[in-house]
Write a structure and sequence with these properties.
Pfam families: Epimerase (PF01370). InterPro entries: Epimerase_deHydtase, NAD(P)-bd_dom_sf. It comes from Sulfidibacter corallicola. Belongs to the NAD(P)-dependent epimerase/dehydratase family. This protein is α/β, with parallel strands linked by helices. It folds into two domains: 194 residues, 3-Layer(aba) Sandwich (Rossmann fold); 107 residues, Alpha-Beta Complex (UDP-galactose 4-epimerase, domain 1), CATH 3.90.25. The strands form four sheets. A seven-stranded parallel beta sheet has the order 3-2-1-4-5-6-11, sandwiched between helices. Strands 7-10 form a two-stranded parallel ribbon. Strand 1, helix 1 and strand 2 form a beta-alpha-beta unit. The longest helix is centred in the first third of the chain and has 22 residues. It is globular. It starts with a strand and ends in a 5-residue tail after the last helix.
């Protein structure tokens, strides 16, 4: 009996490459789609010339509905897209093009292929400055173009489910972290910033007083949740995904060690992100397995991965976040 085929868009990226690992371990053939803007071929090299893995360097916006990459696919995991807040404020049309229209292209490929399940990587940024813990029924408040584009991508996924009967689920990721997280591009996620600073023996740049907390979930737990969402008979569902156990930036700095320097608190940034994960626990029998301390330890074992990442300091961060301060506002 032939092995089932899964397509992973953004499969050379951070979460996507871990999804590929899991699918191969579960006995799937995997077609990876990635344009290598945010992903790295190196993230897949540990598989060598795996007979069940095929890589396709393609921009999702160039996909035609009859793309042979999707022929015979049983499942599609859609991670491809562009992230970061500040660049989305500066280049909104690009974000809408990739994250919305690109998603529509992937949906049409999945529909033409008759896939059994489509799982979309949505973002908790759609909630804005949310009350916590945040459940799936929380009001939507997209405060910048990245959040808007990811939410509209999700709306397209659910629309294709309702109108065309495409079996699909959406997972709103809170704060994923782990090995292979991005090392290039704009100033962004705290782990990449801190790890490069630690490698250079430079102070860790703490935003505000560092008491702000994030619902960090280790990347292998993220991949396991997406797999569970592809296994269930449930469709048309939205799931929040986090550890349900927020950790402060100061706690992360304590584990990493080293000197610290404070930089200004940013307007429009939540004090806490905290996913209510009761629905995904109940429906998919999923639960996080990797503790925060264990996850950070795994990263530190692989810290050289971030040696070529941008090295940020007080001055360069101020320049990179100028647009943020210009357009974002604190809640009154």
């Amino acid at each position: 009996m032939a092995k089932p085929l899964a397509v992973v868009t953004g499969g050379a990226g951070f979460i996507g490459s871990h999804m590929v690992d899991l699918l191969l371990a579960e006995g799937f053939r995997v077609h990876v789609i990635d344009n290598l803007v945010g992903g790295r071929r190196a993230n897949l090299e540990h598989h060598g010339d795996h007979p069940d893995l095929a890589f396709h360097e393609v921009d999702i916006r160039a996909l035609a509905p009859d793309s042979p990459i999707f022929a015979g696919a049983d499942r599609v995991f859609h991670f491809a897209g562009i992230g970061d807040i500040v660049p989305s404020i500066e280049r909104p049309s690009e974000y809408m093009s990739v994250n919305v229209q690109g998603t529509v292209r992937v949906l049409e490929c999945a529909r033409a292929a008759g896939v059994r399940k489509f799982v979309y990587a949505a973002s908790s940024s759609c909630y804005g400055l949310a009350s916590v813990p945040t459940d799936e029924d929380h009001p939507i408040e997209t405060k910048y173009p990245y959040a808007l584009s990811k939410f509209q991508g999700e709306q397209a996924v659910l629309h294709w489910h309702e109108v065309y009967g495409l079996p699909a689920n959406s997972i709103r990721i809170f704060n994923a972290y782990g090995t292979r997280s991005r090392t290039s591009g704009a100033y962004g996620a705290v782990f990449g910033v801190f790890l490069r600073q630690k490698l250079a023996n430079k102070p860790l740049t703490i935003v505000g007083d560092g008491t702000q907390s994030r619902d960090f979930l280790y990347v292998t737990d993220v991949a396991a949740a997406f797999y569970a969402a592809s296994q269930t008979e449930r469709t048309g569902e939205i799931y929040n995904l986090g550890a349900g156990n927020p950790q402060s930036v100061n706690r992360l700095a304590d584990i990493l060690g080293g000197e610290r320097v404070q930089i200004p608190k940013r307007p429009g940034e939540p004090e806490c992100t905290w996913a209510d994960i009761s629905k995904i626990r109940r429906d998919l029998d999923w639960a996080p397995k990797v503790s925060f301390e264990e996850g950070v330890a795994r990263i530190l074992e692989n810290i050289d991965y971030w040696r070529d990442a941008p090295l940020w300091d007080v001055e360069t961060i101020a320049g990179a976040t100028k647009t943020w301060f210009q357009y974002m506002q604190d809640e009154s």
